[in-house]
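Entry for the shared binder. Reason: the reviewer on the internal report wants the predicted structure included alongside the sequence.
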Amino acid sequence: MNISNYYDPILDRPLTSLDGCSWEDWVSGASAQSRFSLHPEGFPVFVGADQLHASNEYEGGDPYAVSEHRDSAFQQRRSRETLSLLSSVLSPSGAGVRILDLGCGEGHITEAIRRQWVQAEVCGFDYSLSAIQTAQRQYPSIEFAVADAYSMPYGPATVDAAVINNLWEHVPDPLRLLSQVHRILKPGGYVIVSTPSRYRLENLLRAISGGPLVFMSKHHVTEYSVGQVLEQLRYGGFGLIACQSTPISSTGWSWKWRLAKALLARWLRSVNSHHSLESTVFYLARKTGGFARPSSPPSAVSSAL
């Protein structure tokens, strides 16, 4: 681990070993001026001692059960769509390319990226100390860190591609997150965002019948329509390249559900709606301009069809 690869956005300079402190001092809060500490297992920690426990959602195991369901259609699609979108914009070897996996959890997709781009520099971070401990043990060739997505420890214009898989719906202010992504990406750099479709089939049927919308997980702060995410990306200085979601097989669905989906899909196409009936939508966008208001981006964006 080379600490010079990391950057302090508050001090606005690369970090050195002198900016760190011992793990004992970090967890006790005895070195308030230090900017990071090296965990005994070798990865850097940028989340302060006062936040480490509250942010450690993986402490009792993976709350999203990704490891247990890695062979599920949903998890296979996450990996497949991410690699496909990256392949459309990156060279096959990845030579000279830096790819960052934000909110990487236990690092399964990070490792899939590393295996496909063997010459790229692939790194990942998560807010949860336990998640990164597991990721580092399973995939020691990847450089992992414990960090806050609102204050990423990477220098300006140092990343070629950023992957944000199912993190968007967990943060209260995705535009603040996007401003950080904009800062670290090189000019013309790419971002991949995957997040639930607010008006997926089940929710759209609930909305039509006057019922309340239901989140996919109790851990979600909110969920966005496709139009809202497109507005957020545009506001953040990104141009959309692709917006897609390969349907998960409906085998086992009743004929009524399959018919409802087919009819709704036809109707949405006829009115040029952005809504997706699939559970998760994947976006590929390119950094094209400046963030609209980098100092204080708003925390809400208007809805759009």
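Summary line for the report: The CA atoms of residues 18 and 34 lie 8 Å apart.
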